[in-house]
Specification:
The complex is a heterodimer of chains A (305) and B (304).
Chain A (H helix, E strand, L loop, with lengths): L5 H5 L19 H28 L19 H9 L2 H32 L5 H10 L5 H14 L7 H4 L7 H12 L3 H9 L4 H12 L1 H17 L1 H7 L10 H11 L10 H35 L2
Helix pairs in contact in A: 2-14, 3-14, 4-8, 4-11, 4-13, 11-14, 13-14
Chain B lengths: L10 H33 L1 E4 L4 E4 L3 H8 L1 H34 L4 H13 L2 H11 L6 H8 L11 H14 L2 H12 L3 H9 L4 H12 L1 H16 L3 H8 L13 H10 L4 H29 L7
Antiparallel strand pairs in B: 1-2
Helix pairs in contact in B: 1-14, 2-14, 3-7, 3-8, 3-11, 3-13, 5-12, 8-11, 11-14, 13-14
The chains are: A mainly alpha (305), B mainly alpha (304).
InterPro entries (chain A): MetI-like (IPR000515), MetI-like_sf (IPR035906)
Organism (chain A): Paractinoplanes deccanensis
Pfam families (chain A): BPD_transp_1 (PF00528)
Chain lengths: 305, 304
């Protein structure tokens, strides 16, 4: 079940990379050629919108809809102009800061809680852990309004706090993930440290945490992505403020309206595409560094079912 | 099993345990249990935003819910979307996972590329597809025209607005695919060897070995995707309801969008809270039905 040993499960030769199913043969058979062609076809389909996006961001106004993947006229000035028209740097900075705080808070708090559930024996532990898992079933809309009112009544409206405040208290899936990891650590490790006089906190901070870095990274990256993409939260909590206080996703939505002809814009879609590319690139960058963590995290999600 | 025998627990250890999980307990009491009780009582009240005061309103909000045709309409749109999206997502994800599991070279490369849409933020997906799906000049209809098909007005024609959101969901199908791929890796290879010795072809092998062996993952994905489908917000809001001057087709009014509008455009908190509870009850019933059906068909390995 799930990830147990720290380095092995997340090494380059992750279980996902090993062929399962029928026995391996490394020859080009007719079947393999057809299979590869089919997969290349899907590659084109999945990549097309992203390549189209990059191309459109480099086209002059009016050529966006020629749908050419290589612009007839290259227009790098789009990037300069949009920079002057939209507070892109503010948006990126806000998003990076919020996503970083959200990820840092939730990964540390979830680890603490997870260690509590994994190591200690106390009355009601299994019931409480069942409750942790049950909260995953609750649709966010049920708590959306009261959460807004809680932030309103505590005077945090108009600040960043509502976008990551709840992350200080751990989050169900991440608690599950980290607990799963801690359960895989040999108990003798902790018992020995206890005999040597370590406190419970030291067991967590000095032993469990350093060993759990791989799954800690999964939690951090997952939440960073989730917070980065969080559009509805920004819409609820930041939309009333000034435009330069927006996050990147809210900014893109703002740009969509600003340049939309139905809202009186000039149909300068190339600018919207620049902004869209800008909100996407950091995630692609994150993926290029942490791909195996994302894949392993998603696979673990399935294994809990 | 650990039963509540007081002697069994070390007092110091138990206290430390509670301290470690105390952040979650606190968060649960405020942001889950407290919020649920708060939300439930708001749903039975008229909420004054200026004073943060509630006046009891009995079942008024729930009655208004039943009388508002847009609640039923948005629920219908959402249900339509879920019925269309979930099976298509499952089939495409499973198909791709099987292909990836069989290919000998480049599986890692393909998996990486297929995952990129999943990394693309919803706002970017929406702003790209807004243009790709343009009925006259969009790339999708241009491609269809090239093979002699006149594509629909995706974002205008009420019959096609929901399928266009399905299309965007399918583009991001790789999360589901990865879960299937992980399940496929766990199917013991010798099962296939025995089956081919018995003369079972690929189709028979799929239905007698693969599908039963990964039924747990199918079950999990169906439940997760259904819950997600009922809460679709970002794409529908960004494509159709972002710009209040725009006249959006009513078929694009998804439940979560209408709930959001009621809550944070009209500040009709009582009504919106009642909508949220209705959604919760619907999802609970749906999940219960799925679990009941699932238990009949899902195969669990010995360890369960």
């Amino acid at each position: 079940m799930a990830i147990t040993a720290p380095p092995a499960a997340l090494s380059q030769a992750a279980p996902l990379d090993e062929p399962g199913g029928p026995p391996p043969r490394r020859r080009w058979t007719v079947g393999q050629v057809l299979l590869t062609v089919l997969l290349l076809g899907f590659t084109a389909l999945f990549l097309y919108p992203l390549v189209w996006l990059i191309a459109a961001s480099l086209k002059p106004a009016g050529q966006v809809f020629d749908n050419a993947l290589i612009p007839h006229t290259w227009r790098f000035d789009n990037y300069v102009e949009v920079w002057n028209q939209l507070p892109l740097l503010h948006w990126i900075f806000n998003s990076v800061a919020i996503a970083f705080l959200a990820a840092a808070f939730v990964s540390v708090s979830s680890s603490i809680v997870a260690f509590g559930f994994a190591y200690f024996r106390f009355p009601g532990r299994n019931i409480l852990f069942g409750l942790v898992l049950a909260t995953m079933m609750l649709p966010a809309s049920v708590t959306m309004i009261p959460t807004y009112l809680i932030w309103k009544q505590t005077g945090f409206l108009g600040t960043w706090v509502p976008l990551f405040g709840a992350n200080l208290f751990g989050s169900a899936f991440y608690i599950f993930l980290q607990r799963q990891f801690f359960l895989g650590l040999p108990r003798e490790l902790f018992e020995a440290a206890r005999i040597d006089g370590s406190s419970y906190w030291q067991l967590f901070w000095r032993i469990a945490m350093p060993l759990s870095i791989p799954s800690f990274i999964i939690v951090f990256l997952f939440e960073f992505q989730a917070a980065w993409n969080n559009f509805q939260g920004a819409l609820i909590y930041l939309n009333a403020g000034s435009v330069s206080d927006f996050t990147a996703p809210l900014g893109v939505a703002y740009a969509m309206t600003k340049y939309s002809p139905t809202a009186g814009g000039q149909a300068d879609y190339q600018y919207v595409m620049v902004a869209s590319l800008l909100v996407t690139l950091p995630m692609l960058l994150l993926f290029s560094f942490g791909q195996r963590y994302f894949i392993e995290g998603v696979a673990t999600q399935g294994r809990k079912g | 099993m650990e039963r509540l025998k007081p002697r069994k627990y070390n007092r110091r250890e138990a206290i430390a345990g509670y301290l470690f999980i105390s952040p979650w307990i606190l968060g649960f009491l405020i942001f889950t249990l407290g919020a649920m009780i708060y939300s439930l009582s708001i749903s039975f009240s008229r909420f004054n935003l200026a004073t943060n005061k509630m006046r009891p309103a009995g079942l008024d909000n729930y009655r208004a819910l039943l009388e508002d045709p847009r609640v039923a309409g948005s629920l219908k749109n959402t249900l339509f979307f879920a019925i269309l999206a979930v099976p298509l997502e499952i089939m495409l994800a499973l198909f791709l996972a099987i292909l990836l599991n069989r290919v000998r070279r480049g599986a890692g490369f393909f998996r990486t590329v297929y995952y990129l849409p999943k990394m693309t933020p919803a706002v970017a997906t929406a702003s790209i597809f807004l243009l790709l799906l343009n009925g006259n000049t969009g790339a999708i209809n241009s491609a269809l025209r090239a093979i002699g098909i006149e594509g629909p007005q995706w974002l205008v024609d009420p019959a096609w607005v929901r399928p266009s959101i399905v299309l965007m969901a399918l583009w991001g199908v790789s999360g589901t695919m990865v879960i299937f791929l992980a399940a496929l890796k766990n199917v013991p290879r010798d099962l296939y060897e025995v089956a081919s010795l018995d003369g079972a072809g690929p189709v028979r092998q799929f239905f007698t070995i693969t599908l039963p062996m990964i039924s747990g993952a199918v079950f999990f994905n169906v439940i997760i995707l259904t819950i997600a489908a009922f809460q679709v917000f970002d794409q529908a809001y960004l494509l159709f309801w972002r710009d209040q001057t725009n006249v959006a087709p009513e078929a694009s009014l998804f439940y979560a969008v209408y709930l959001f509008q009621q809550a944070f455009r009209q500040f009709n908190f009582g009504f919106a809270a009642a909508m949220a509870w209705l959604l919760f009850v619907i999802l609970l019933i749906l999940t219960a039905i799925q679990v009941k059906i699932g238990n009949r068909y899902v195969y669990y390995e010995g360890e369960r």
